[in-house]
Amino acid sequence: MIRLTAALLLLLSSFSTAATGAFAEDLPVYTLPVADLKAEANYNIEYVGEVLSKLEDDSKYDDVKKKVKRAGATLAVVAQTIVNHPESAAAEVAAADLRDAGLALRTPPTLPLPKQVWKQLRKRMRR
After folding, report:
1. pLDDT reading at 38 higher than 60
2. Do residues 85 and 33 lie in contact, with contact meaning Cβ atoms separated by under 8 Å?
3. First vs last Cα of the chain: how many Å apart?
């Protein structure tokens, strides 16, 4: 939750900078540890797994689609942050693949796709 708050503060500061015309050089740069980003990615992967495991049948997927899409979008952003991180090699994950999987979860047409993507995500994070 603290990481999410920090990210939102950074986002708000970028909007205020655009509104006031301040230059990017004037802003401090905050970098989260890559281990924290990896932990956030793991959390989102596990969350998707929990949501999908609670489904009794495929017809109930529409009830949880919004949760899966939100977790996929968050995973995509976190994974892209890992890709751009100066210490991305320390994460020891295929962050670009995680980003693509998060985007796939963002636009799932039916339930089989999120289940397949989740299984692939679990394999990628266990490396």
Report:
1. yes
2. no
3. 26
Instruction: Tell the residue number behind the tokens 């295929």, with chain if given.
Output: 94
Q: How far apart are CA 111 and CA 10, in angstroms?
A: 34
The answer to whether 41 touches 78, Cβ cutoff 8 Å, is yes
Q: Report the distance separating Cα 94 and Cα 18, nearest Å.
A: 33
The alpha carbon torsion through 106, 100, 41, 61 (nearest 10 deg) reads 30
Q: Which of 16, 108, 125 is nearest to 62 (CA)?
A: 108
DSSP 124: H
**Secondary structure (3-state) at 59:** helix
HEC states along 10-56?
A: HHHHHHHHHHHCCCHHHCCCCCCCHHHHHHHHHHHHHHHHHHHHCCC
In 10 A of CB 101, how many CB atoms? 24
pTM: 0.68
pLDDT, tens digit, 9 for 90 and up, residues 52-89: 888 777 777 777 888 888 998 999 999 898 888 888 77
